[in-house]
């Protein structure tokens, strides 16, 4: 199962990112030639991947459906009003039934315990497509994007290392699911990450432990720091990142959150005041709202957001290949 980036060793995580890059080259070349990519087509022939989504999605849904299709399988989208789960049937029964008929369950849920519960009772691999705690498919695509933008500066020393050690990510905004997996990956790959959130919106203590434990056994783990001052986080950063201030499920808190996050919008002025590195890049998992990043940065030359979104499909192919085709072996 792929529940979070914590499930992967640093070498496995790097391998998934590098595999995603190879799939990008193959899929783009095949598209230009008007053919299905030979290296992937057939890997899931005759197999169904159930996609159980209890929340909205553009990128995760489309990238997963496209990835399964490119591999010759059948993506079966099951929205929250399509199946009995949560209304008329338990998680345990649903998991047993769906996993007896398919090759994989890709699930978007609220509480993380829901996707963990599916995995516990499933006969097939389960991939977390976003829970309240983690978003591993996003993090694979994010690191593919970082690798594409920064690899020339720091060539990898071996084929399973991304060679990104020493970079600094500044996360300015809410401490949420996307951050938790991104920070875990930073620790594993030697990338420093500084997080600036308003008082009361920092990383919960238990989650901080999970993130920091990613450094066990890593020779030069990335360092995690926290502040309430956006300029402090941005100092010396290579990549500025944010996400929505109001995640799905937090709609009732929207007004209070927007008030609390005033002053945390990413702008060129913030990057300059804080002293981000020359040539800094901007990333956002999307969907985006203007309050967390202005148009100048979001659509500007430093923005990687649309490469990052496209990379979701290659990340999905890499994850399906590892967890479904290769039964959890990341090679
Ligand atoms: N980034 C992301 O997961 O987007 P969706 O919610 O549209 O899937
Ligand atoms: N933090 C956001 C991510 C959406 C992709 C949410 O959970 O709604």
Automatic annotation (TrEMBL):
<dbReference type="InterPro" id="IPR006132">
    <property type="entry name" value="Asp/Orn_carbamoyltranf_P-bd"/>
</dbReference>
<feature type="domain" description="Aspartate/ornithine carbamoyltransferase Asp/Orn-binding">
    <location>
        <begin position="166"/>
        <end position="321"/>
    </location>
</feature>
<dbReference type="GO" id="GO:0004585">
    <property type="term" value="F:ornithine carbamoyltransferase activity"/>
</dbReference>
<dbReference type="GO" id="GO:0042450">
    <property type="term" value="P:L-arginine biosynthetic process via ornithine"/>
</dbReference>
<comment type="subunit">
    <text>Homotrimer.</text>
</comment>
<dbReference type="Pfam" id="PF00185">
    <property type="entry name" value="OTCace"/>
</dbReference>
<keyword id="KW-0028">Amino-acid biosynthesis</keyword>
<protein>
    <recommendedName>
        <fullName>Ornithine carbamoyltransferase, mitochondrial</fullName>
        <ecNumber>2.1.3.3</ecNumber>
    </recommendedName>
</protein>
<dbReference type="Pfam" id="PF02729">
    <property type="entry name" value="OTCace_N"/>
</dbReference>
<dbReference type="GO" id="GO:0005739">
    <property type="term" value="C:mitochondrion"/>
</dbReference>
<keyword id="KW-0808">Transferase</keyword>
<dbReference type="InterPro" id="IPR006131">
    <property type="entry name" value="Asp_carbamoyltransf_Asp/Orn-bd"/>
</dbReference>
<dbReference type="GO" id="GO:0019240">
    <property type="term" value="P:citrulline biosynthetic process"/>
</dbReference>
<comment type="pathway">
    <text>Amino-acid biosynthesis; L-arginine biosynthesis; L-arginine from L-ornithine and carbamoyl phosphate: step 1/3.</text>
</comment>
<feature type="domain" description="Aspartate/ornithine carbamoyltransferase carbamoyl-P binding">
    <location>
        <begin position="1"/>
        <end position="148"/>
    </location>
</feature>
<comment type="similarity">
    <text>Belongs to the aspartate/ornithine carbamoyltransferase superfamily. OTCase family.</text>
</comment>
<keyword id="KW-0055">Arginine biosynthesis</keyword>
<dbReference type="InterPro" id="IPR036901">
    <property type="entry name" value="Asp/Orn_carbamoylTrfase_sf"/>
</dbReference>
<dbReference type="InterPro" id="IPR002292">
    <property type="entry name" value="Orn/put_carbamltrans"/>
</dbReference>
<dbReference type="InterPro" id="IPR006130">
    <property type="entry name" value="Asp/Orn_carbamoylTrfase"/>
</dbReference>
<dbReference type="GO" id="GO:0016597">
    <property type="term" value="F:amino acid binding"/>
</dbReference>
């Amino acid at each position: 199962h792929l529940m979070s980036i914590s499930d992967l060793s640093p070498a496995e995580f790097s391998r998934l990112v590098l595999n995603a890059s190879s799939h990008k080259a193959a899929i783009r070349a095949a598209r230009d030639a008007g053919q299905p990519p030979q290296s992937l087509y057939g890997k899931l022939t005759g197999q169904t991947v159930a996609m159980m989504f209890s929340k909205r999605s553009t990128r995760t849904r489309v990238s997963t459906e496209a990835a399964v299709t490119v591999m010759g399988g059948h993506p079966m989208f099951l929205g929250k009003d399509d199946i009995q789960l949560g209304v008329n049937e338990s998680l345990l029964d649903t998991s047993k039934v769906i996993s007896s008929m398919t090759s994989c369950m890709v699930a978007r849920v609220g509480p993380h315990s829901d996707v963990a519960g599916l995995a516990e009772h499933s006969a097939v691999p389960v991939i977390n497509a976003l829970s309240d705690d983690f978003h591993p498919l996003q993090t694979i695509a994010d690191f593919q994007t970082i690798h594409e933008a920064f690899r020339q500066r720091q060539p990898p020393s071996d084929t399973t290392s991304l060679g990104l050690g020493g970079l600094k990510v500044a996360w300015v905004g809410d401490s949420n699911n996307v951050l938790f997996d991104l920070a875990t990956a930073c620790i594993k790959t030697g990338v420093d990450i500084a997080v600036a959130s308003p008082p009361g919106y920092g990383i919960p203590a238990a989650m901080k432990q999970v993130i920091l434990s990613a450094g066990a056994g890593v020779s030069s783990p990335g360092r995690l720091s926290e502040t309430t001052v956006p300029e402090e986080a941005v100092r010396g950063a290579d990549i500025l990142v944010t996400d929505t201030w109001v995640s799905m499920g937090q709609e009732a808190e929207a007004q209070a959150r927007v008030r609390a996050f005033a002053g945390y919008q990413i702008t060129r002025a913030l990057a300059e005041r804080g002293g981000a590195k020359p040539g800094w890049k901007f990333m956002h998992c999307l969907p985006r709202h203007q309050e967390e990043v202005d148009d100048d940065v979001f659509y500007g030359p430093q923005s990687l957001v649309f490469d990052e979104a496209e990379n979701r499909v290659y990340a999905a192919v890499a994850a399906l290949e590892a967890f479904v085709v290769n039964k959890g072996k990341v090679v």
